[in-house]
Amino acid sequence: TRPILVFLLAWQLFHRTGHALVSLHETSRRDAIQLVGWLASTSVPHPAKASSSITSTDAQNLLALIPKRNFDAPATNATISAELTSQIESLAASMENHQSNNAQSPLLRGNWRLLYSNGAEITNLATNLPLGFQLGKTVQPIGNDVFENRGTLDHPLKLAHWQTNVIGDVRVAPAGSLNAAGVKNDRGNRVDVDFRVLVFVLDEVFGRPVRFQKILIPRPLAKGKPQPANDITYLDETLRIVRGGDGALFIFQRENDVKLLTAEERNLLLGSSATSKQERIDVGIGMAEKSSSPELQFLFQERKQ
Fold first, then answer.
1. Residue 282 has what pLDDT?
2. How far apart are CA 125 and CA 32, in angstroms?
3. Distance between CA 146 and CA 143 in Å, rounded?
4. pTM confidence score
């Protein structure tokens, strides 16, 4: 009976948590995330200095406002008080859009942990998981032109442990481009993201190691659909504030204990080996709700027969 229980548990969570998260950013940002990234080189301009009205104290105060959660999960507007939510979002908003060219900044490279978000894909995971599961640590390693959105699902009684990862590519968005919300890229802070693969791994059940993996391959973006994108509205050595294509807020802090997959690991998941190809399936199992972000709807669009 235990194998049957494991299978049922896996699929129940798979249908309820189809995300990666993204970061996501993710791309994904989204579902899990919000997916964000950047393309850096030594010949591109560095971000402009923040306005004199923005100080390091503002960044420190913002980080201090965000409470720690069980399993190092990100705080959300659905899991903290309305008063604290307002304080966090107001301070973050006051720090945004004083910089330019963040999409090309070397500061984007590195490993980031999601501390706070009001994005629907994150709040849904933080409040609507079945069987007592809880959203855990969500991180986003970013390289020169690649990103990942990694998330975990944990259980207080160690019923099971899940890992998710969205793997994708990033590039500087064209100047003047519009995102899904119709906001123009007029500061050079936007990155376009392309989702390549979405991986779900169930690696522990009842304290014992298992290996249940599912790989989804997003289909190409349909003609006329908005390009998944993120705006890096504030960036320094330790803090990054991001707005998703739908305006959702994501606040990240730099961490050093996470690394990108190696090129070999990435290629394996992208289908360079026969084993990976056998496990891949088309996106279509999950369906994004109408209220979900454009990026999430892209990831989980219904398959047309």
1. 38
2. 8
3. 5
4. 0.76
Residues 33/141, Cβ–Cβ less than 8 Å = no
DSSP string, 49-115: PPPTT--HHHHHHHHHHSPP-GGGPPEETTTS-HHHHHHHHHHHHHHTTS---GGG-GGG-EEEEEE
E strand or H helix at 127: helix 120-127
Query: Tokens 């997916």 — which residue?
Result: 35
Q: How far apart are CA 227 and CA 236, in angstroms?
A: 26
Annotate 32-41 with b (16+ C-beta within 10 A) or e (fewer): bbbbbbbbbe
pLDDT of residue 298: 42
**In which band, very low, low, confident or very high, does the pLDDT at 43 lie, cut at 50, 70 and 90?**
very low
Q: Does the pLDDT value for residue 159 go beyond 70?
A: yes
